[in-house]
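As the next step, I wrote out a protein sequence along with its fold in token form, included below for the reader:
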Amino acid sequence: MTSPDNQLIAVPANSLAALHAEIRAVRILLENSNITPPDPWRTMEQICADLGCSHYTIRRRVETGEILAQGTGKTRRYRQR
């Protein structure tokens, strides 16, 4: 019995060329992309939406140390531990 790795299948040349071109295009897109992770520091509105709670709960969690906070006023940002 042969393993699936040793099996050959017939593929039309134009289909193989189209697949090769598509793979090449994806490779070019990936090489030219700049993927950066999302900023872990969130605004009050964002962290409320992420956690599904009110700004009162966020402030309480900051006081207990469950959520980190930096900055003041409108530039204040929050991050979960």
